[in-house]
Amino acid sequence: MSEKGKLYLIPSPLGDNDISEVIPSFVLGIIREIDLYVVEEVRTARRYLSRAGLKGQIDGVEFVTLNEHTSPEEVEEMASLFDGGRDVGLISEAGLPAVADPGATLVALCHRTGVEVVPLTGPSSLMMALMGSGLNGQSFAFCGYLPAKPDARRATIRSIEKTSAAKRQTQIFIETPYRNDAMFSDLLRNCSPDTEICVAADITMPDQFIRTMTVSGWTKENLTIGKRPCVFPMLA
Which of 113, 116, 60 is nearest to 90 (CA)? Predict the structure, then answer.
């Protein structure tokens, strides 16, 4: 059996701030040694890698796309990327790869085919939002994206709140930025006045906003979140 390379799970910045502020130097060192990347979007990945130290060397880097449109058959074919001991880097659009991210399918493939998986340190908006929320960090759950359709979204919000109240468990969810305000409005209209909600937007960036209040408190604020990357921890 030929030697297989490793899969490095490489975090990426959550914004365009200084790379050195959010990506550890040892991770940057690994990035500079890899010449094959599986990425969600090539243009974004090229820009990140240039900032990470590969500026002027990008043309020598190979990219393979893995996103929501990639078929299971195409993922299976990626097993050959590791042949001959070649290491591969996996990069998501922002934050940690394989968390709420199609890259998880490549990680699963590596486990099935005996490829070593190496997760690296970097920013996680989910954990940083939980850390900054002041809500229950002993018991929590990540719910992913809420439904896009208003009626389904509102029903899901009520269900999440019931689960949080029953378990005293922080529920964490995210939303597509252009639906932030519609979703936040639904939260305020469908949750109990005493339910606590954290709005954690633009984490690690200069205009970072992290604040936790009860629903009754938020209704007095008239907050407009806008089209910003945002995480919402909730505790009923």
Answer: 116
pLDDT tier at 19 (50, 70, 90 boundaries)?
Answer: confident
Torsion angles phi and psi, residue 145, rounded to 5: -85, 140
Q: Is the pLDDT of residue 71 over 60?
A: yes
Crossing angle, helix 150-167 and helix 180-190, to 10 degrees? 50
Residue 11: count other Cβ atoms within 10 Å of its Cβ.
Answer: 22
Assess contact for 49 and 59: CB atoms under 8 A.
no
Residue 2 has pLDDT above 70, yes or no: no
In degrees and rounded to multiples of 5, residue 131 shows phi and psi of: -55, -40
pTM of the predicted model, to two decimals? 0.87
The 10s digit of each residue's pLDDT in 100-129 is 889 999 999 999 999 999 999 988 999 999
Cβ contacts of 229 within 8 Å, gap of 6 or more: 14, 15, 94, 125, 177, 201, 202, 203
State phi, psi for 181 to the nearest 5 degrees: -70, -35
